[in-house]
Amino acid sequence: MNLRSIIALLATTVAAPLAHGQAADAARILMKTAANYRAASTFRCESAWTHKAGDKEYSASVVVAAKRPNLYRLSMTGSYCDTEVWSDGKQLTALRVDRSVYTRTAASRQLIGVDTLKGIAVPTPASRVITLLLEGRWQDRRDDLASRMRSAEVSGPQSFGDQLAWVLSFDYDADHSAKLYIDNDRYLVRRVALFSKGAPVIVETVRTVEIDKPLPTDGFAVKLPEGARQLTALPAPDSPSVPTSITVRTYDDRQIRFSDLRGKMIFLTFFFST
Fold first, then answer.
1. Residue 19: what pLDDT?
2. Cis-peptide into 69, omega within 30 deg
């Protein structure tokens, strides 16, 4: 019996399948989910990421891949803060693509128990959760995200596309609340949505998942761009610019925001004297 089978068996024994009418708590759901990620010899997923800032919506694609014992890659492309993070087994490198700056440290001997993304800010909530599960750190009391996930409120399972999903609601950070969607069939992360003032701001939806499939080792190495500068700490990602809304007051004492207007607008500027 291989490691994946043993861990899956233990998870099934400790956390029996959750029926629709059975009370669910975050710990039981996370235990079953974590077992699937920790037991994976290889893992790869692709996600669609969106960030709504003002009236604009930014989009990107995100890939997370891992191969035991210590190969890892997170690739975010197409956004205002393209980022590459990779461990080739010898070195852990994080690159801000647009700024052409990077950090580099010695890679850990294994992913299990190690905070791979420590000190690396990426606005990809689902990828951060998946990475934490691949590292087997969902019970790490020193990790704020793990602690908040364990204390999540659970609802569902509810309809999610053509399947059902549990929804774990918790505070993601000081500025955002989160909803974590875990499917009720394979117990895999399907989406993490971040909310601000009740409205979705960042949504990362997992489109494809591959577990225990062959992954070439050279896929965990990225060539640094020519002239890239090494730093001791990776700068925070850029934030999208949100235009300041211009508000005017009409002659009948109404306020109008230009951002609320649609279609063509004609502005007349004139002076008069009495």
1. 44
2. yes
CATH number of 3-230: 2.50.20.10
DSSP 3-state percent helix, strand, coil across the chain (nearest 5):
20, 35, 45
Cα 30 → chain centroid: 17
| Of 241 and 136, the one with more pLDDT | 136
Q: What is the structure's pLDDT at 254? A: 72
Domain range list for the chain: 3-230
Residue 271 in tokens: 């002076």
Mean pLDDT for the chain? 86
Q: Please tell me the distance from the alpha carbon of residue 1 to that of residue 220, in angstroms, as a whole number.
A: 28
Identify the DSSP state of 184. Answer: T
Per the listing, tokens 């009391």 go with 141
Cα separation, 100 vs 110, whole angstroms: 28
The structure tokens listed for 76 are: 């975010």
Q: Cα–Cα distance between 190 and 260 in angstroms, integer?
A: 34
In angstroms, the CA 85 to CA 102 distance is 9
